[in-house]
Structures are given as C-alpha cells and as structure tokens.
Amino acid sequence: MSSSSSTTSAVLLNTGVQMPLLGLGTYKLVASEDVYRAVDAALVAGYRAFDSAAVYRNEADLGQALKQLLPKHGLTREDVFITSKLGPEDQGERAMEGALRSLAQLDLGYIDLYLIHWPGTQGLVVADQRNPGNRAQSWVMLEELHAQGKLKAIGVSNYTPAHMRELIQSCKVPPAVLQVEFHPRLCQTELRSVCEEYGVCFQAYSSLGKGELVTDPVVMEVAKHCERTPAQVLLRWAVQQGVPVLPKSSNPDRIKDNARLFDFTLSDTDMDRLSALDCGHKYCRDSSEVA
After folding, report:
1. Where is the NADP-dependent oxidoreductase domain (predicted)?
2. Which of 12, 54, 109, 242 keeps 20 to 30 A from 264, CA to CA?
3. Among 36, 47, 56, 205, the one annotated catalytic
4. What is the pTM of this model?
5. What gap in Å lies between CA 185 and CA 217, rounded to an integer?
6. Quick one: which of 112, 107, 133 has its CA closest to 121?
7. Distance (Å, whole) CA 266 – CA 214
8. What is the DSSP string of 216-262?
9. What CA–CA distance (Å, rounded) separates 159 from 287?
10. Binding-site residues, please?
C-alpha cells in the first residue's frame, strides 16, 4: 500500500498486510451523490480505508465513486483498503453467493477485508441452534474465496468472546480482524484479550457512542485541555491503543476534522480518565445472546 497518504499510521494484520488505523465508515450513506462527496472529502483528508457492508446497500456506489475519484487524486486501487461484510440474510449456505455479490457490487477486483457481519442468521431467533452451524459454513465459504485471492483478508464483526473461541477452534484460516463497538464506556477488555491471544486485530466502530459521548463532561474537559474536538479525543483514545477506527460522516468538514488524529497525543492521565468511564454500556445491538 502506498505511503502517499497524510495519515499513514497502520496496523499489521496476521495476513502480513497493513490496514490503516483510520477508515471512513459508510453506514447510512445511501445516496450515490452523498457517497461520492464523502469519499472525495475523505481522500483529500488522507483516508485510505473505506468500510461498507451488504446491508448498507451502498457497495456499488462506493465502488463507482472510488473508480472515478482514485485517478483524480493520483491514486490506484492498491492505495486503498476496502472492507465489506456478509449480510445476516446470507449467513450459512448462501454465504458464497452473498460474498460474490459484494465483490460484483464493489467491482474493484478484490476486497481487502471481508467480515461476517453478525453471528446470527436473519430469520432465526437468537437461541436457534442452527446459528453455530451457519457461522461455520459461512467461514468455510470465506476461506475458499480467500484462497482464490478474491478476499485478501477475512474476519468477523459483533462476535463475542465465546463466538471467537468457537471460530478459532474450527477454522483453517484464522480471522484477521474483529470489528465491534468500542469506546470509553465500552472498553471490551475480555474481547481485546481474546484477540491479543490469537493474533486478531481488534477494530472499533461507534467510537463516538452514536454521538452521545461527545457531550460527556470528561470527554469535553479532555478536549478543552488538548484544544481538540471531543470527537478527535474519542478517536485518538482508540488509535493511541493501536485500535483502528471508522468514524462515519457525510459532512466534508467533519470528515476532515476526524482525520486529525496523528498530530497530537493524549497524556497517560487523560487516557486513564477516559478509560475510567467504562461501564459496559452498548449503544448498538447486543450480540451476546446469539447462540
């Protein structure tokens, strides 16, 4: 991957590939013009990673935007890192079909990282005992496409420690990444420990707690002290621990601001103050009950 970006900090995956610490999340970016504008602003600001998913319904728009914008910014396909995810409706026997659909929608030749989006299967209750078998079947399909070079790295999202251990015990190709909700109110100590034990990159989403954490008094105090925005402080708290982040926005100015993470450092005291907010609070859907 090119180092022409202004935000080149990256983490080494167990595949030997570098994944940028900063990526643009595209959840809720559904209009093609919004995707184009956000990707354009992100490339200018130094983003070199983009995170999509089948359920976001924007894979085709993201792929089209990149094909138009990469030449404009003097970049090639190899300069960007693209993540997408298998939808819960395709979990199990339809996993190959779902992953191939993502590849076709993006139409970028390959996907750098492809994740199983959810440990459960759409249409099944959380305790349904078919879920473990469907997860295992999905993973075998992803391993096949990984072997073919169509998915450069494979991983999972929203898995619990139990789901991770189940996967590690049965897989031929270990997951490269676990993407989960992570912020000062949800420090995910056990999950991070499991990932460290098995050499899996732990990646954060919802770093701002769906926008609620930017008004937390401690976050605001630290931000004032650092002369930074609360969002920058929350994102820096993660990347300073080596955790990649995926802030999402359709606002070009905010996209630019969110990228300013690598020219300042939080003190140990500020890091500790933020980490002390941990109370196990989840702003997003809870996957811990999925069998």
Report:
1. 22-277
2. 12
3. 56
4. 0.95
5. 13
6. 133
7. 16
8. -HHHHHHHHHHTS-HHHHHHHHHHTTT--B--B-S-HHHHHHHTTTS
9. 7
10. 117
Please provide the distance, in angstroms rounded to a whole number, between the alpha carbons at the two ends of the chain.
38
Which segments are annotated as binding site for substrate?
A: 117
What pLDDT digit, counting tens, does each position of 77-103 carry? 999 999 999 999 999 999 999 999 999
With H, G, I as helix, E, B as strand and everything else as coil, classify residue 204: strand
For residue 124, the SS3 value is: coil
Residue 171, φ and ψ in degrees, nearest 5? -80, 155
Alpha-carbon distance values, 245 to 136, 202, 240 (Å): 27, 10, 11
- The answer to whether 56 is a known catalytic residue is yes
Q: How far apart are CA 248 and CA 225, in angstroms?
A: 25
- The label of the residue with tokens 């909700």 reads 181
Cα 233-236-241 angle, rounded to 5 deg: 135
Condensed to tens digits (0 to 9), the pLDDT of residues 32-81 reads 999 999 999 999 999 999 999 999 999 999 999 999 999 999 999 999 99
11 bridge partner residues: 19
